[in-house]
Amino acid sequence: MEGGNIRKKISGTICILICILVLGACTGDKEKKGNEYQVYYISNSETKVEMHPYEMTATTSEAQLVELMECLAAQPEKLEYKAPFAMGFQVLGVNLEGENLQIDVDAAYKKLPPITEVLVRAAIVRTLTQLPHVSLVMITVEGSQLLDRKENVVGWMNAEQFIDNDGNEINTYEEARIRLYFADESGTKLIAADREEHYSTNTPLERFVVEELIAGPSGHIEGQFPSVNPATKIVSVMTKDGICYVNLDENFLAVVNNVSTDVSVYAIVNSLVELSSVNKVQILINGEIPSNFSTSTYERNLDIVISPEN
């Protein structure tokens, strides 16, 4: 992090300036006490991340957050690795509300190569969500939402969204057989479509399914039509205890091609419940459940599914 400065704002009520010393908590000779954490650094080749053990010295929640952010800005002992906050961009502010941590960075962040940017995100999120009072992390760029290469909003992230190894599989892809549900011509029924697709191991399969639904049917398959508004942006997708939480922007509610919102909802629900990790689905619009939704969580609905010949 250039200049080594982080402006930290907690819950919108406290605003303090934290000076991060390059030879601070993570590189100096300090008495070892407290709990052990893993700090994630990026290889000089920018091809992988690696976790380095670190003994926490701070005891309060706020001080622990500051200490780990110091680690993410300081040169690690292994010279073949570098700190994610020392990659040519600056942290402008940090805002913790509840268990949601927002980190605002300057526009230089956008200059990171795509793979490097994912590695930086992985290192930051996997390090900071180890704190018991931090569940989700969001990175914004000068106050604006961070977009991925497909122009989707990155949104809130947790550690489970990143591969659980040293990061050297960041560029690998796996083949998955998925079942997607698209609309029929009338827009009132769904038709199942099986696909074998390659997806990045850095993308949760649940998010990949939603991305493919938004992209629509492959080519011009007769009888299949988009079941989700193609202008829909993904805010976040995560699964916990069998429930997949899909957070979308307001475009999802705009009806296109006579496809009702209910049909769009069940296109997502039915497609996700095909995965072994998902039993139910909750759909949020910009973080909230729309008042016109009939329930907070949805289960599979095959009553509106028809076969292609119907």
Give an overview of the whole structure.
With 310 residues, the protein is of the alpha/beta class. It has helices at 61-73, 114-128, 205-215, 261-273, and strands at residues 5-10, 14-19, 36-43, 49-55, 81-82, 91-97, 100-105, 136-141, 144-145, 173-183, 190-200, 234-240, 243-248, 280-285, 305-306. The strands form 4 sheets. It has a 6-stranded mixed beta sheet, with helices on one face. The protein has a 3-stranded antiparallel beta sheet with strand order 4-3-5. The longest helix has 15 residues, at 114-128. The termini are far apart. 35% of the residues are buried. The model is unreliable at 1-24, 27-34 and 165-169 (pLDDT under 50).
What gross morphology would you assign? elongated
Helices and strands, in order, run as: EEEEHEEEHEEEEHEEHEE
Intertermini distance: 60 Å
- What is the gyration radius calculated from CA atoms? 21 Å
Helix content: 10-25%
Low-confidence regions: 1-24, 27-34, 165-169
| Largest sheet: number of strands, sense, barrel closure | 6 strands, mixed
* Protein structure class: alpha/beta
* Distinct helical segment count: 4
Q: Looking across the biggest beta sheet, what order are the strands in?
A: 2-1-6-7-8-9
Strand tally is 15
Name the beta content range. Answer: 25-35%
Q: Quaternary arrangement of the chains shown?
A: single chain
Q: Average pLDDT across residues?
A: 83
